[in-house]
Amino acid sequence: MFKIPDHQVAGHQASNGMMGPVVDDSGLFFKPLQKDERGSKEVAFYESLASNIDVPDKIRAYFPTFHGTQLIPASDGSGLHPHLVLQDLVSSYKNPSIMDIKIGSRTWYPQASEEYIQRCFKKDRETSSLALGFRLSGLQVHVSKEAGYWKPDRKCFQNSSAEIVKNVLKKFVSSNISADSDAGDLDFDCAFAPSVYGGSNGILAQLLELKSWFEDQKFYHFYSCSVLMVWDKEPNAAAAIKLVDFAHVVDSKGAIDHNFLGGLCSLIKFISEILTDPHACPNNLALIAIRTAMAIALIGEPEY
Amino acid sequence: MFKIPDHQVAGHQASNGMMGPVVDDSGLFFKPLQKDERGSKEVAFYESLASNIDVPDKIRAYFPTFHGTQLIPASDGSGLHPHLVLQDLVSSYKNPSIMDIKIGSRTWYPQASEEYIQRCFKKDRETSSLALGFRLSGLQVHVSKEAGYWKPDRKCFQNSSAEIVKNVLKKFVSSNISADSDAGDLDFDCAFAPSVYGGSNGILAQLLELKSWFEDQKFYHFYSCSVLMVWDKEPNAAAAIKLVDFAHVVDSKGAIDHNFLGGLCSLIKFISEILTDPHACPNNLALIAIRTAMAIALIGEPEY
After folding, report:
1. Can you give the pLDDT at residue A183?
2. Which residues of chain A have a CB within 8 Å of the CB of B166?
3. Which residue of A has its CA nearest to B256?
4. With DSSP H G I counted as helix, E B as strand and the rest as coil, what are the percentages for chain A, rounded to 5?
5. Model confidence at A142: pLDDT above 60
6. Do B215 and A255 touch (CB under 8 A)?
7. What are the phi and psi torsion angles at B141 (to 5°)?
8. What pLDDT sits at residue B177?
9. 3-state helix, strand, coil in chain B (%, to 5)
């Protein structure tokens, strides 16, 4: 009835007898409550969000649906354990390509313990968080039915330079990829960039909608929270972003979440450059069409 | 010929025999080069900006005009010393109200020395930088010809809560103020908010234009840099913002300046709330008119 998820790319995983999330057949994702205050804080956030009538529905859709908590058998065989019951974000995709991006140059909040702050501070400096405003926490890219997935160890990517991150974001939406190549060694074609990143419902449009909310909202500050990007080559599988991991959400104390917003804007710039920079994937005709349309919108129709 | 500026609100000041900036009668501001690498780094930034043809003119106007460097007598009487020669930003104002706001939740850059990082890190945590994404570095508000200026010690404000910062930003544009009151004790009328913060050329519009550039530019990361806001009750003195202090500008390494951008968005939210929140200065008729116009723009004309 409960099984280990097929497509988890980051976070604690139920394998080798460890406690981790499980899914069922009906599209639910069961995340074990962490035993320290993180578990209760994540529940408190989901309950606050559920009752916050000032969060617009279109923004609420970027969070996993919350179905309360439930005692179910823990994946490590230790007996009943309380779990968050959430929407399984990837159950509707057949071969999902997934990227988990931890947003913010700072993953710690002022009220945390000194020990926790120092640990996060060190990690933020060692990874790309400090330089780029985010770090890649995990990813898988579907290559083909035969080759399966490219699923690099996150240690290979969370300390990446801007150049490497850009290449990973290109590889995420390219067709000329293999499961064993890294992200630095090919001129990726970005064949799926127009449909996945672009368009009025694509990932860039969704990120921009989320950004508008973050420019305004003063309810929550999200630390160590991720944007999950998911898509699939199946014709009816829409590309989507979701926010995940809320064990470190704190009250805003009257200011917007400038830390999350800054990192989000940095990610947006990376993705929008893939769509607009004429030097990125110069042979992709669909991208050239998008760029031409954007240039015309900016400077007006050419006179013939 | 050279004299100590009348209206400096932050930074090293030429008083008590210390070396500090001086001005002349022609509208120039002479800033002594700091003796360590900060001086040469600030010159290098101004030279880079001057030759960077990809910075739009409308954005360049937010920086002080740069006239090279010059050996002039230091204000501390120690003889000739190299100075940056810059536009005097307040020479065209008669009774300027000025606020110096250091932008960014983090004032240190990854390449700095460990000792410098730890010192800034401590200060960012002790002040409002961490919580709000900026801190008030200094300010003066013109009260009246008789009463002069309200010029609080910056120690009173750089550790402020969101509530206090909002009140300071209200007091900055109010007529019912005194020189000795603090910012917490009055219901300020925000009489000048529509003309100073609002309007198509007001401070909010300028901050939004700067924000657009920061969402895009990947030339510079600005650490420990301030936004200076200046205005004057004189009829022909336009409210203006300028960026100042570039001793800690570093290369972007391929990402936008998410740290500066996040703090700038936070400041923008504070100022836009003064213009739009119906609970802020509810008796200010000009503000009510602005809010009504914005509501109509959002939801359409009411039907009578």
Report:
1. 65
2. 254
3. A266
4. 35, 20, 45
5. yes
6. no
7. -125, 125
8. 87
9. 35, 20, 45
Per-chain mean pLDDT for chain A? 90
Beta pairing partners, B227: B101, B243
Q: Contact A269/B130, CB-based, under 8 Å?
A: no
Indicate the burial class of A140 (C-beta count within 10 angstroms; 0-12, 13-18, 19 or more). Answer: buried
User: Residue A117 is encoded by which pair of tokens?
Assistant: 């702050």
Judge if pTM exceeds 0.90.
yes
Contacts of A269 in chain B (CB under 8 A): 215-216, 218, 255-256
Disruptive mutation site among A123, A258, A260, A298 for chain B (greatest number of B CBs within 10 Å): A258
| Residues of chain A with a CB closer than 8 angstroms to some CB in chain B | 105-106, 110, 121, 125, 130-133, 161-163, 166, 215-216, 218, 253-256, 258-259, 261-263, 265-266, 268-270
Measure B160 CA to nearest chain A CA, in Å: 12
Nearest by Cα to B244 from B96, B108, B100: B100
Nearest to residue B192, comparing CAs of B171, B168, B213?
A: B171
Cα R_g (chain A), whole angstroms: 20
CB contact under 8 A, A105 and B259: yes
Local confidence band at B300 (pLDDT 50, 70, 90 cut-offs) = low
Q: Does the beta-carbon distance from A215 to B163 stay under 8 Å?
A: no
For B13-49, how does the pLDDT look when each residue is reduced to its tens digit (9 = 90+)?
777 678 899 999 999 999 999 888 888 999 999 999 9
Size of interface A-B (CB pairs under 8 A): 86
| Chain B residues near residue A125 by CB distance under 8 angstroms | 110
> Which tokens in the block code for residue B187?
């219901």
**Rounded Cα distance, B109 and B103, in Å:** 13
As a whole-number percent, the residues of chain B with pLDDT over 70 amount to: 93
Residue ranges of chain B whose CB lies within 8 Å of a chain A CB: 105-106, 110, 121, 125, 130-133, 161-163, 166, 215-216, 218, 253-256, 258-259, 261-263, 265-266, 268-270
> What is the chain A residue with the closest CA to B214?
A265
CA pair distance B28, B92, nearest whole angstrom:
11
- B304 pLDDT exceeds 60? no
Residue A219 CA to its chain's centroid (Å): 21
ipTM of this complex:
0.92
Query: Which of B258, B266, B267, B276 has the most A C-beta neighbours within 10 Å, making it the best mutation to test the interface with A?
Result: B258
Chain A CA closest to residue B133: A258
Please name the member of A110, A132, A255 whose beta carbon is closest to the beta carbon of B255: A132
Smallest Cα–Cα separation from A9: which of A151, A107, A114? Answer: A151
Task: List pLDDT tens digits, range B156-191.
Answer: 887 889 999 999 999 999 998 888 766 665 688 899
Kindly list the distances between the CA atom of residue B298 and the CA atoms of A69, B292, B302, in Å, as whole numbers in the listed order: 39, 10, 11
Give the CA distances from residue B301 to residues A16, B40, B277, in Å, rounded to whole numbers and listed in that order. Answer: 63, 57, 20
Amino acid in the structure at residue A84 = L
